[in-house]
Each structure stands twice: as C-alpha cells, then as structure tokens.
Amino acid sequence: MDILNAYPDRPGNRPIYTPPNGPPQTDRVPPAVYEAMREDNITAYFHAFYKRLSQSSIAHMFPKSEKNLLRAADKSAAMFTFLFGGPHLYQQRYGRPMMRARHLPFIIDEPARQEWLRCFKETLDEAPEKYAMPAEHTQSVWKFVYDFSSWMVNALPESVRKDAKSNSSYNDINQSDINTVLDNWHLAASKGDLERYIGAMTEGAIFMGTDEHERWTRAELRTYAEPHFADGHGWTYTPRDRFIRTNAYGDVAWVDETLDHDRYGVLRGTAVLRENGEDIINAIFASMGYKLEPIRTKNTPSVLASDPFEAQRGILEKLEVSDPVILDVGANKGDTAALYRSMFPGAKIHCFEPFPETIAQLEDRFGSDAGITIVPKAVSTEVGETTFFVNHAAATNSLLPRPEQDRLYPESAGPKGEIKVETVDLDSYCASGSIDRVGILKLDIQGGELMAIGGAERLLSEQLVDVVYSEIQFVPLYEGAAQFDGVWSKMRELGYALFDVYDLHRSQGGQLLYGDALFVSQRIQERVIRTLAGNRS
Q1: Which of 68, 97, 165, 394 has its CB 3.0 to 4.6 Å from that of 63, i.e. a possible disulfide?
Q2: Predicted local confidence at residue 11, as pLDDT
Q3: CATH number at residue 277
C-alpha cells in the first residue's frame, strides 16, 4: 500500500508548503542529555508525550489504539535518542528517517505545530523529575525542538490556503513539464551536450556530485564537465522513479528520484526547480550524491557501509553466511538482538545478560522465539560468581565500578548498588553447546570487553569468530575499564584487523568518550579487504 494514498489529505491532493528558509540551523542537544537519560527514560518520556498528543486537538494525526500509539512513540524515541546525543537507533531499526517526507500525509500548519509543541513542553517540564533529564539542559532541548519542528510544517494556515487557492495567480507547475526538463537534462549529460546541460541551471544554482568535495557553482560544474563532454559523451544516470512536490503557489518544485548508474549502482538524485516565466523551468539546486546501495558484481564488494550493522550484514553476505551464530554479550533489553533477528531471520542468537530486571524483559520479548537463547549470566574470563555494579541507568550496569574521582558521567547514571551474579566464559559456553563457529560476537559490557575477550581466547586465536563488534572507551568511565588501545592491541595479537569505528561520542569540550569498533578475522581480511584493495589499485 502506498502510504500517501492511505490518507484523504495526501500531498498529491494539495500544494505542499515549504518553510522559506529551509531546514533550521540550530544547536545540537548536549550529549549529556542522552548520557543521563539513556534509552529507557527517553522512551518513557515519549510514551507520556504521545499520550498527551492523543488527547490534543491534533489527535487525529496519531493512532487510536494504545498499542499502535506506543509503537509510534517508540519510533520517535528511537529518533530522539540520536538527536539527544545517543546512537542512531531509528536508522538501525527502520532505515533513513526522512522525517519531513513521513509527515507529508498530514496537513501540518503552524497552529498544529503549536499544539504539538504545547504537549512537548508539558512533558518537558516534568522531565527532570520523572525521566532523568538534566534540568540545566531542558532549555537547550526546548530550543532545538522549537526550531526543528518548524521544518515539519507543510501547509499554510487554513485561511491563507483558501485565499491562495482562489487567487488567480495560483498555478501549479505542470508535472509533465518538470519530467521533460529533467529527462532532457539527464540526456544532455549522457550525450555530452554541455550548453544544454549547463543551460538548465540558473546562474546561482548549486550542484552536488557523488564525491564529498563536489559542491559546485554552475561555472565550476562547467569547468569540470567540459573535458568529460569533449568527445560527445558524458555520464549516464537512468531514472527509475521520481517524486515531485510543489509549494503552495505552484511555482517551485522539489524533486527526488532514484537513479541507476552502471558503475556506482543505485543513487538518489534531488533537485529544486523554479518556474522562470515564459514556460521556462530552471534548476536552482541539483544533487546526484546520495548513494543508496552499491552495485553488486563479482569484482565490487558490497560491504562498505557507514552503518555498523549494514557492514556486518555485507561482510557475512560476502562469506555466504546467511544463518550465523550470534553471541550478544550485554544484551540489555534486546534491542540489538531484535535488529540482528530482522537482519538474519535464521540466526541462532545467544543473549547474555546478568541483571534480573532486564532478564525478565528479554524473556517477555523473546520467550516465544526458539532461535534466541537467553543466558542469565555475565560474560567474563571464567565460570564463577562475581559482584555486579548496578547504576541508576540500567544500560550502564557493569562488572566494573564507577570511578570515585574524576567523574566523567552524569549523576543520574551513577552508582545505585551491588548484586552477585554468575559468570561464564565464552570458550566454555561454546564448547558445552557444540558451537564451533560464531558469525558475530557483539560486546557491550561497559568496560569489561577485555575480560570477555580473555574468556574467548580459544575461539579468537583459532579464528572461529568472523566479526567482533565491540563498544570502545577512550576515557576511564569505569575503574579498570578496557581502553580502545588495549582492546585493539589484544585483537591484533589474536589476528583480527580493525575494520571501522562508529557512533563516536564526545564531551561538550570535544574529548572522545566512547563509540563502537568492528574487528574482522583473517579470512575476512583475505576474502574481502584484500579484494577491495586490489579493486582500488
């Protein structure tokens, strides 16, 4: 079902208003907000916010059943986890946000925005007390949300919409004319017709290409294209599909399209076009630079990805591993396990989690999934029992205590108590469970990563684990915590290479705090990385 056709107010039935100044340029929310709240509190915040929305004057925009309402709230919480300084959970779980596009099925004018903001502000006022938001940062959150929400407005107020529609100057750009302009523009590039290609752009137009440095004025694009077009051939991008939206007065159009290229694969192209009088339509902005997926040929590995989970998927695809064994060490509530399940439906996933409250959540979530095993133990160097340090934010619980001096974490994520838990080492666990190969070893145990690696030395030294995806720390967030250099050194010693680092978090002063790293085995180095290096030479 096309979501745009599921609503009577779908964009195709009305002109789309776009705020004249474009996306707001506003300050980011300090990362300390995420560090204090973490995912649990952010999710609880958005549940409360969405319940207010469900009783507001814009309730018709939100699901009616509580179950679906909370699902929608969970999606917003995943997005705001990133906006508050945490990992990009929304993109990991649902794909690219495209927030303005997802809101287009609804008429959102300024009064609707103000009602949304009212509900948000009422929830925000409760946030320091109920959801562990640092009180000193509530104003930063409010400013960000106030500015950010302006970009969701897609309709003029009702009275203005009526006036615009009755105004004799109101006239939509003919979409077939836009298609003709763009098709001819692509054709001119393919045939090396420089004057026709450059002539479609206004004097002040900006072009963005497929490489990060390719942000060019019309004159700069001409300089670049001229030698490429000299022999009557340029570059060929073939449109697959195209989506066109116009402003409230019908004289400006926003276009995005999916394009095929024989070397780069599938890309996203965007453009802004303006009616220039006398039936002339010019591009005032054009981009060919958003790569959707790499073309897949036997000589072009498809494993390069800025997202760590897509990288893992691509690596295992290259190894033709479709149903891997996954050891999720530090499973917490199971969000990563759920993501792995969606990526690898046939995988056998083992979730290690020692904290009773989160064990119960895992059992509720995955109890009916025969492919997921919940192991209520902490992973360490050996089988036994040890002290487990419980913090106010459950996601920060650890086998290691918080440092008493030089505190680099928010008070709301500080120590709460201690409990005794059972421990297991991965070598023993896999041997007893007849697990002879592991596709992915994920480590997120708050500074205890070297202990887990030490208990998996047989698996790692014998190269029985393909990918290790580990949290890394650059400063001592826990006493005796493994720092990045120590983890990297140990992994090199065991024959693993660093593939990439992701989701790096910094203090407000710019100091690196923590992130994630992906390490790969020798067979991946031989079959993937060296192949890639050969293709680039």
Answers
A1: 68
A2: 42
A3: 3.10.450.50
